[in-house]
């Protein structure tokens, strides 16, 4: 499975015929076998074992099993990852932990172009914590220069959700540490796309998403990372029973579990988490560096194909493969309608306000022929102006 | 479906042959039809619609659809319930909201016998918030007398998870309000068991669980309630994008959604939530008052049967049906081993430290014959001492 030359392996997934799926960075497709696994979890576990499933089907250890599968994908030491809750909730947990490590400072520094929920959550925690805590969100290109000794926490997403620009995790982390700041990395568009090196880069905390490149299913549980040097001293703000040292002792007092275990909170959604566990099979033994190389080749290929076929589009993604993630974006003032027209023809990407046409590219199920077709259909739509129809302008709830 | 005389309807569920299931208050059984519904969500939605499922399969509205099904079960006004996250995380959200309503006070009053995670979460939020906030956990029978003008938030679980004692929601809420306290009710062992009257009792906030009497599956998403008088002013501490007024506008600044919508946080676990939505079918058109009457008849029946057959056991649950929930508990010093012996014979209840044998009773799938069998098997186990075997003393991870 680690041979990149054997990619794409579209038959690893239950992908509909005729669809070119370039939105796996929003929702990964259904891995082949996951439907059957989930059916077993419902019938043979929940149905037949009933409450005994917590022990007999190993539900209680499911979050740890998933964590152990995610850790190598993000360069995390064993026992440093906790799985559960949403990405937003996990960010809240690690923000609280990070803030406590720098109690004399008051600033959470971030990127004004960060994924909005990250900024919202940081704002919310500052309002609740009070005492002058605040978020400073700088324009993307000014963030690194703004790292100074006022900064308690630097909170960044490694890959920009619109442009695909990838930050240098090692250099930025080093710079932040030199200024005494604690660093949180959001790996939403990183995990499963290329090798992330949290430990090697000295990251303090990280969070990430189960439903994008990890293919865990809609709303799959998220994950968080706590560096070993913090794990034993972090005081969980969401101090729920699943993070207690002995959840089933029903002690009236809270005692944090060992290491990252303490970052678990409530009862995890077993069905959704089972799908994620199963989806992670696809990464077993996979060479992520080879996957990344192949992904960047495909990104280059797609940029060239689109620029040749659609000269009016403006590339929003860096041309330099060293500083981009695993999606390619173009700008078009009517991007929303253009994307709906594209989707109507079976080429599925997504739109991000205000003008971004976004195409997630993963070598697991995408090859050059898919990208050529996408570029051709996009070209036809732009040439013909067929995107300019009322049904393509009508905004859906979710874009 | 509302005719209580037609109960039990064991065929509403995929229950294993020969099992007497008295642990639906820990994990409700699999409703018939839910396996098929979930299979469709996996194959026909995630697999075939891919990311389009957010609009085409209505995933984006799924939490609201589930909330609309739960609201009538708990006496909540339309548009006052939000579904998602775990019970513990929801408690954190409503605690933060409640604390902000009483900014001059510093005490969260609770019951020392409350379900531990409630106390842990309250402790955690006080530690994080600082400024003198603290939890005062009183012995169960002293809580009501301790309500005074120092209390900012009264946080109680309506039905005690061990004894099944049910508090008078109306009287306690009135007393708290008279002292100027804000009230949070945990409905973990209430929702789906009997009619809860949140609005009529004037409750401020509530939380509850999807996987007990609501039968939503292992780790099903939880819910919260915000009284309409607070909904428009509450400032969410977990201010995630799903609670934003326009999540897909990707605004850099947070604007809370309308009313209780703002209490949503991150992307919900769609597969687990789909199971919960489907399970709630079983409550459509059901007369909860009739269900409660039948449940209390069954509780009386079980108490009588066990006391006749097992005179050595001590009843931990009130004999007065007006002050109990929908489970019956007995004390035995070797309760853990006794329960394992019982489970080995297909009578499934659970054990709660230190000495509680707990039996959840729901008329949906339990009748007198089941309870007679349970009492008989329990009697045989106690008479023979067959519980005193090494395999029954060996503690599993989850009890």
Spans of chain A of at least 5 consecutive residues whose pLDDT stays below 50 are none
Strand order of the largest sheet of chain A: 2-8-7-6-5-3-4
Name the pair of protein chains with the most residues at their interface, and give those residue counts.
A-B, 92 and 93 residues
Secondary-structure element order of chain A, N to C: EHHHEHEHEEHEHEEHHHEEHEEEHH
Helical run tally of chain A: 13
Number of domains of chain A: 2
Portion in strands of chain A? 5-15%
What value does the average pLDDT of chain A take?
Answer: 97
User: Percentage of helical residues of chain A?
Assistant: 25-40%
Please describe the biggest sheet of chain A, giving its number of strands, its sense, and whether it closes into a barrel. Answer: 7 strands, mixed
Question: What is the first-to-last residue Cα distance of chain A?
Answer: 34 Å
- The helix-and-strand class of chain A reads alpha/beta
CA radius of gyration of chain A: 22 Å
Q: How many β-strand runs of chain A?
A: 13
CATH architecture of the largest domain in chain A: 3-Layer(aba) Sandwich
Determine the CATH superfamily of the largest domain in chain A.
Type I PLP-dependent aspartate aminotransferase-like (Major domain)
CATH class category name of the largest domain in chain A: Alpha Beta
Overall 3D shape of chain A: globular
Per the CATH scheme, the topology name of the largest domain in chain A is Aspartate Aminotransferase, domain 2
EC number (chains A, B): 3.7.1.3
Organism (chains A, B): Limimaricola pyoseonensis
Function (chains A, B): Catalyzes the cleavage of L-kynurenine (L-Kyn) and L-3-hydroxykynurenine (L-3OHKyn) into anthranilic acid (AA) and 3-hydroxyanthranilic acid (3-OHAA), respectively.
Family (chains A, B): Belongs to the kynureninase family.
